[in-house]
Amino acid sequence: MSAAIVDPGPVPAPGTGPRDTAVRRRAVALRPGAWLVWAVVGFFLINLFGVIATVVLDSFGRTWFAGWLPKGYTGSNYSDAWHEFSLGQVMTVTFELSFLVVGISLVLGVPAAYALARRDFPGKKAVMLLFVLPILVPPIAYGIPLATVLYKFHLAGSLTGVVLANLVPSVPFVVYTMTPFIEQVDPRLEAAARMCGAPTRAVLARIIAPLLLPGMLAAGILVLVRTFGMFELTFLTAGPTSQTLVVSLFSAVFSAGIRSAQSVDAMAVVYTGSMLVLLVVALRFVNPTQLVARTRD
Amino acid sequence: MSTLTGTPAPAAAPAPDRTALRHRLAERGVDRTLLLLLPGLVAVIALFLYPFIYGLGLSFQPQGANAGHGVFASYRAFFSDRFARGSIGTTFDLALPAALLNVGFAVPISYRMRAQFRGKRLLLTILVVPITLGTVLTAEGILEYFGPVGWFNSTLEWLHLTDGPVTLVDNYWGVLLSLIISGFPFAFLLTHSYLSGIHPSLEKAAATLGAGWWQRFRHVTFPLLLPGLLTTFCLTFVLAFTVFPSAMMVGDPDGRTHVISIEAYEQALQKFNYSQGCAIAMVMTALMFAVIGVAMALRSRLYTGSTGGKG
């Protein structure tokens, strides 16, 4: 597996000493190790492409039992899927849920992030730990006790229950995304505003909020993407009328046989399409490496 | 925890004659700003901590057939059933190779990707796609692409590499594939961001001292990267350890890929034995923390100071 590192033993190491980047880059491209690495990346990307492309092609195909391509193309799978899985209702629920979770988790998370970024108080470590646990502990592990509690309070199966369950990872996520943003805002700006006689409300509305808006936007979009794709928590707490797109996709695949594979695929494409739109929007505001790296410490 | 929720209270209701206390608290950072913490804290306590403790308590109150056999009956029922107990081994069999493969591939590839080249941002963007696809769509794609008549097997047969189709779905390999497809980009992006935090001048310094390619990697970059790699390993391991939808869809949920999360789900929400479901969830959490604990103990023995980079 680490063949790429071990492999280029006999090759002499170029680029010793300060050279300009052009020379170094060409030297890198010549190494067999580099070719091997790019081959692995290429193989991965080809298979990834295949995985996505088969679903997309199949969703437009009439029948596709064997061979390279489906026999004939049609758009009727989409209308079938729309009626069969009542996608209109499912989409409404999905977007209601996502935006509710984004709104509530921003309202709860941003003030907490502000307090954590600005104050050093006894017990701060414990609070930080409490906020990191829902991110660390996998959804399925706390989802089962949470579902049990929600059933006890007769909240499971309703949209309220699903929103509550999805808040668990979202609020800490907002806290952890926002804390570095707030730390970057110089506290002397607030002090200066207060010196000029601004009341707390004005400091919040005219100094902090505008400066934090990009951060809040980024955090909100990341929460939106995560909630949209969150399977476990929604699956454990949703009822028939509060299923999101990903959960009803799962049920459709798992109970396949009574439905045509094509309409299931059509639903999968609708899901991917919405996800991609969200992703493109998200990437306009967030650097891809931050998408995963920001959550840690 | 009690100190946390308790501390803002004196600052919240300041009496005029207790300004001294208020000032002393403010000096230690306790003032009205901390009230901002309350809504978020209440939400996490009510929705995460309380259910977790409730579940822990419930796991000691056996239900159904286990009732009346002592407080540990739910745990005993899980560990005495060979099939249920075996789900622990099954989960490790899947999660360990998946996490090791993902991290193992991520290192050379991100090492190669440090240089600036055209289309780097595009490549990074493409690699984010599988993270957002989610496990359900990935599983659906794997079923069709790696299936007996899918493109993958068709290509193999066309190249005369195999006689018959290779079975890659509805078994162990399907789940492993889905774990790699959704886990590798995650591991790669993390490793990439760690690696770009190590300043290139360190390697250049080693190069001026005559260190070869392998020596520079082995003795300069790798030791600085190792703490980050252990964190990456933990995160990918947790993702793989709690595999649920793909184990159901592309795996063999009643046999070879009967992972612990499926066992917990079936007990809690299909057999409605909440007590045993919670017990299994607790076992799962404990196992996960044990692995993370080992990795973090290793990590604490390593150098984790400045890497001269942006971090």
Automatic annotation (TrEMBL), chain A:
<dbReference type="Pfam" id="PF00528">
    <property type="entry name" value="BPD_transp_1"/>
</dbReference>
<keyword id="KW-0812">Transmembrane</keyword>
<keyword id="KW-1003">Cell membrane</keyword>
<feature type="domain" description="ABC transmembrane type-1">
    <location>
        <begin position="91"/>
        <end position="282"/>
    </location>
</feature>
<dbReference type="GO" id="GO:0055085">
    <property type="term" value="P:transmembrane transport"/>
</dbReference>
<feature type="transmembrane region" description="Helical">
    <location>
        <begin position="34"/>
        <end position="57"/>
    </location>
</feature>
<keyword id="KW-0813">Transport</keyword>
<keyword id="KW-0472">Membrane</keyword>
<feature type="transmembrane region" description="Helical">
    <location>
        <begin position="268"/>
        <end position="286"/>
    </location>
</feature>
<dbReference type="GO" id="GO:0005886">
    <property type="term" value="C:plasma membrane"/>
</dbReference>
<keyword id="KW-0997">Cell inner membrane</keyword>
<keyword id="KW-1133">Transmembrane helix</keyword>
<dbReference type="InterPro" id="IPR035906">
    <property type="entry name" value="MetI-like_sf"/>
</dbReference>
<feature type="transmembrane region" description="Helical">
    <location>
        <begin position="203"/>
        <end position="225"/>
    </location>
</feature>
<dbReference type="InterPro" id="IPR000515">
    <property type="entry name" value="MetI-like"/>
</dbReference>
<protein>
    <submittedName>
        <fullName>ABC transporter permease</fullName>
    </submittedName>
</protein>
<feature type="transmembrane region" description="Helical">
    <location>
        <begin position="97"/>
        <end position="117"/>
    </location>
</feature>
<feature type="transmembrane region" description="Helical">
    <location>
        <begin position="163"/>
        <end position="182"/>
    </location>
</feature>
<feature type="region of interest" description="Disordered">
    <location>
        <begin position="1"/>
        <end position="20"/>
    </location>
</feature>
<feature type="transmembrane region" description="Helical">
    <location>
        <begin position="129"/>
        <end position="151"/>
    </location>
</feature>
<comment type="similarity">
    <text>Belongs to the binding-protein-dependent transport system permease family.</text>
</comment>
UniProtKB/TrEMBL annotation, chain B:
<keyword id="KW-1133">Transmembrane helix</keyword>
<feature type="transmembrane region" description="Helical">
    <location>
        <begin position="34"/>
        <end position="53"/>
    </location>
</feature>
<keyword id="KW-0812">Transmembrane</keyword>
<feature type="transmembrane region" description="Helical">
    <location>
        <begin position="172"/>
        <end position="195"/>
    </location>
</feature>
<dbReference type="GO" id="GO:0005886">
    <property type="term" value="C:plasma membrane"/>
</dbReference>
<protein>
    <submittedName>
        <fullName>Sugar ABC transporter permease</fullName>
    </submittedName>
</protein>
<dbReference type="GO" id="GO:0055085">
    <property type="term" value="P:transmembrane transport"/>
</dbReference>
<keyword id="KW-0813">Transport</keyword>
<feature type="transmembrane region" description="Helical">
    <location>
        <begin position="94"/>
        <end position="111"/>
    </location>
</feature>
<comment type="similarity">
    <text>Belongs to the binding-protein-dependent transport system permease family. CysTW subfamily.</text>
</comment>
<dbReference type="InterPro" id="IPR035906">
    <property type="entry name" value="MetI-like_sf"/>
</dbReference>
<feature type="transmembrane region" description="Helical">
    <location>
        <begin position="224"/>
        <end position="244"/>
    </location>
</feature>
<keyword id="KW-1003">Cell membrane</keyword>
<feature type="domain" description="ABC transmembrane type-1">
    <location>
        <begin position="88"/>
        <end position="293"/>
    </location>
</feature>
<keyword id="KW-0472">Membrane</keyword>
<feature type="transmembrane region" description="Helical">
    <location>
        <begin position="279"/>
        <end position="298"/>
    </location>
</feature>
<feature type="transmembrane region" description="Helical">
    <location>
        <begin position="123"/>
        <end position="152"/>
    </location>
</feature>
<dbReference type="InterPro" id="IPR000515">
    <property type="entry name" value="MetI-like"/>
</dbReference>
<dbReference type="Pfam" id="PF00528">
    <property type="entry name" value="BPD_transp_1"/>
</dbReference>
